[in-house]
Design goal:
about 45% helix; five-stranded parallel β-sheet; binds iron/sulfur cluster; globular; about 190 residues; Rossmann fold; 6 helices
Length: about 190
């Protein structure tokens, strides 16, 4: 069985991707690295759900450092950008780069991100961030996939119901909290 480091943004976005990988004999190691999320209680809640799901499936999960101040510093000047704008591109770069570096550290040659399973996000931005994350890491490859296609969007909804995940109403940072949707169907 192969392995892959999977950046997990939240349980609802991760479940169908994990299922797809396991069905293809790939055992993912999950990496919950999301210093963008604010407030801390929201970060912890999403982390708990990812851990609960990984535990249920018997998968390893690594939790990254939560340094929201550093994340804020990295997006300085982009606070007023709309979702899918330059702040999000930067946010994706931060998270994919950390995942690529951890993959190298762990000797895992492949990484992916569940960010690309959310219909609220710009796939081109995620793809560019993932590719850029490995430009100086010849031993790591970014698995650049559209995780919404091939029935995965339907599986996302089915697994959300099956596992009764907490499902957030906004993307994650304080700047996105004004774009809440109801009923919750975000990721
Ligand atoms: S809206 Fe979401 S993707 Fe964009 S900067 Fe905020 S947390 Fe990151």
């Amino acid at each position: 069985m192969g392995t892959l480091l999977l950046h997990a943004c939240c349980a609802p976005c991760s479940a169908a991707v994990i299922e797809w990988l396991v069905d293809r004999d790939v055992r993912p190691v999950l990496f919950y690295f999301n210093p963008n999320i604010f407030p801390r209680e929201e970060y912890d809640r999403r982390a708990m759900e990812c851990t609960r799901h990984a535990t249920t499936l018997g998968l390893e999960i690594i939790t990254g450092e939560y340094d929201h101040a550093a994340w804020l510093a990295a997006v300085t000047g982009l606070e007023r950008e709309p979702e899918r704008g330059a702040r999000c591109a930067r946010c994706f770069e931060i998270r994919t780069r950390a995942t690529a570096l951890l993959a190298r550290e762990r000797g895992i040659g492949l990484f992916a991100t569940t960010l690309a399973s959310s219909r609220w996000k710009d796939l081109a931005q995620i793809s560019a961030a993932g590719q850029r994350a490995v430009t100086d890491l010849p031993d790591v490859t970014f698995l650049d996939r559209n995780w919404r296609k091939g029935g995965l969007d339907e599986r996302r909804r089915a697994l959300l119901a099956r596992y009764d995940f907490y499902n957030q109403s906004y993307c994650g940072c304080e700047f996105s909290a004004t774009n809440r949707v109801s009923p919750p169907d975000r990721g």
